Amino acid sequence: MIPHETYMYRCLELARLGAGHVAPNPMVGSVLVYNDRIIGEGYHQLYGKAHAEVNCIASVRPEDEHLIPQSILYVSLEPCAHHGKTPPCADLVVTKGIPRIVVGCRDPFPQVNGKGIEKLLAAGIEVTLGVKEKECIDLNKRFFLFHTRHRPFIVLKWAQTAGGRIAGLGDSRLLISNEITNRLVHKWRSEEASILVGPRTALLDDPALTARLWTGPNPIRLVIDKDLQLPPDLKLFDKTVPTIVFNNHRHETQGPVQYYQLATDSSLIQQLVLALHHLKIQSVLVEGGARLLQSFIDEDCWDEVRVITNDDLDIASGLPAPQLKHARLVSRESLLSDSIHYYVHHND
Ligand code: AOF
Ligand code: ZN
Description:
With 348 residues, the protein is of the alpha/beta class. 26% of the residues lie in helices and 27% in strands. The two termini are 35 Å apart. Ligand AOF binds at residues 25-26, 28, 44, 51-53, 77, 79-80, 84-86, 89, 107, 109, 112.
């Protein structure tokens, strides 16, 4: 008999096909197996549309349909129990007479969170929970963190010279990354729900913060502008992408630009994290400047750090890169004259 892990691996592969199309929902894959033969496969393809189990069961060919009540359904996330944009998958599994289900991990979404499994057990279905659990949780780490820790997944990114400087002295702009790393950064942007910069970076670099060099969605742009002093002709305010301005003065929406007021009496980083949860934003890529990045590090409020180093460029003096704390290097990649270092928290 082929082990459960093999089919769950296939569920994970299918789930990943939904990347970039299902957020803020999780990526989910499902496989239906009769006697070690896959008779159906499906995944959650588009936000608001059919869930993995529905697509999996719908893919069974007419000549195999009579086998459904003798098959095992594999799914990487607990079937849902609630009426959201689609009806409950647990009900579908019951009405199809599927006798056995193997689930990767529990769904932390409060309206599900165990209720799907309870429905299946109550209908007499045999449930195996936790096959390739770590991989299933890891696939949707942004979704899990949001529902279990009530905060977004935070990625810090910067580019530095060989000697560890991120800018020259004064206000001049220093081009550190190359054509290839720029494209990689745009890929990273399209993989996160939002992208954040501080006011100095917004003003001096005038970045568009879009994913235009990649084929994915643009993240929501976030900028800190406490006293609303940034000029309106910055690219950030060109209204092409939803943009949120965190400030101390007003809550207001003007078309795609939203002004979000933060309290002044507690840490900016904690305020931001709370606001992002409130706005249902599941992840953020922080692109600078150095002071903002250092604040996230000092408050120990980050999940991943990605540092691009131009090994061919060095300057005698300039702004030093942020100083990492409690970080563990997980991998290093080389791209043309640049290298990229990936860090996670040392206890992760
Ligand atoms: C499943 N299978 O493929 C997915 C699930 O608004 P809805 O109806 O799309 O429900 C969204 C919630 O359903 C989402 O927050 C998560 O808890 C669950 N996602 N569940 O059974 C799937 N994508
Ligand atoms: Zn569902």
